UniProtKB/TrEMBL annotation:
Name of the molecule in the record: GTP-binding protein 8
Requisite cofactors: Mg(2+)
EngB-type G domain span: 105-278
GO cellular component term, pick one: mitochondrion
Organism of this sequence: Oreochromis niloticus (Nile tilapia)
């Protein structure tokens, strides 16, 4: 791997504007954060590193670092999240039922989880380099009412789902469930859990369903900025225990995310690029 400084030509700095004049957050691009102090940079790129110090020395950390791409890989993956005339990123369509879901051939990934867990915010952060792509978020649970399809050129599609739990039990049964069982081009499901509250009963039901579908899925721990390290670590270890003892199709490594502060966003972009076959990692890692 090349030293960080050599890899980068861009200077870090303040927010910049995209083609439509909308402001791009200064932390949106991995290329722009590399001048941060090393510890801060590491915690943004690999949020698990923040928690490592609190773990018992004897504890095996491998499961938390299975997918461990280099900065170079993350920079390569990030290119896919820039829109251009030959690689258009856009909101494509919304569907209320599977019959209305678009017939797309490219690999697809979807984000599911309880209402308010941060699905739309996460997708918004992934697309923060193209702020013209509108992803609606809200403080009010049950905000996303349909399956929203976003195309990332011809590389892959990202689907934002309505949440389950509070106020929206029907959506899960009517939309998410049939989608998970029948979507042929679905390559990964990301199941989001709120890091500040940990696994809830409804999450366990969703996890069970993911197991039943047999499609590979990945746990994402959201809102890691919202609680202290102790609470986060307790919730993470509990989740890890469930993944280890009760799942077979779940990727053993949970991804830690703060959509508001961009922690883990670059790593997740790289993972999505990798599992959709859109990039070839320079250094080996698993998925
Ligand atoms: N502190 C913090 N708040 C977050 C984060 N991600 C999302 N939120 C907040 O959580 C609330 C819900 O976010 P959404 O992204 O709309 O949640 P959702 O899962 O799409 O919700 P539904 O569409 O209702 O299912 C909003 O007030 C967000 O600002 C995060 O990383 N950190
Ligand atoms: Mg939403």
């Amino acid at each position: 791997m090349l030293p960080v400084r050599q890899l980068l030509r861009l200077r870090p700095g303040v927010a910049v504007s995209c083609a439509t004049g909308q402001r791009i957050h200064k932390l949106a691009s991995v290329q722009k954060v590399t001048s941060l102090p090393p510890k801060k940079l590491r915690s943004l790129l690999y949020p698990f590193s923040e928690l490592e110090a609190y773990l018992d020395r004897s504890m095996d950390r491998t499961q938390f670092q299975l997918f461990d791409p280099s900065l170079e890989d993350m920079i390569e993956a990030e290119k896919l999240f820039h829109s251009s005339p030959s690689h258009k990123i856009d909101y494509y369509i919304s569907a209320e039922r599977m019959e209305h879901a678009p017939d797309l051939k490219q690999p697809e990934v979807c984000f599911i989880g309880r209402s308010n867990v941060g699905k739309s915010s996460l997708i918004k952060a992934l697309f923060s380099l193209t702020p013209e792509v509108e992803v609606r978020v809200s403080k009010t649970p049950g905000h996303t009412k349909k399956m929203n399809f976003f195309r990332v050129g011809k590389a892959f599609t990202i689907v934002d789902m309505p949440g389950y739990g509070h106020k929206a039990p029907r959506d899960f049964v009517d939309m998410v469930e049939p989608y998970l069982y029948t979507r042929k081009n679905l390559v990964r499901t990301f199941l989001l859990v709120d890091g500040s509250v940990g696994l809830q009963k409804a999450d366990l039901i969703a996890l069970e369903m993911c197991e039943e579908t047999g499609c590979p899925y990945v746990m994402v721990v959201t809102k890691i900025d919202k609680c202290g390290s102790g609470t986060l670590l307790t919730n993470l270890l509990n989740l890890q225990d469930v993944v280890k003892t009760e799942t077979t199709s779940c990727f053993p490594q949970p991804f830690l995310i703060s959509s508001l502060q961009f922690g883990g966003i670059y790593l997740l972009r790289c993972f999505i690029a990798h599992v959709t076959g859109s990039i070839r990692l320079k250094e080996t890692s698993q998925s």
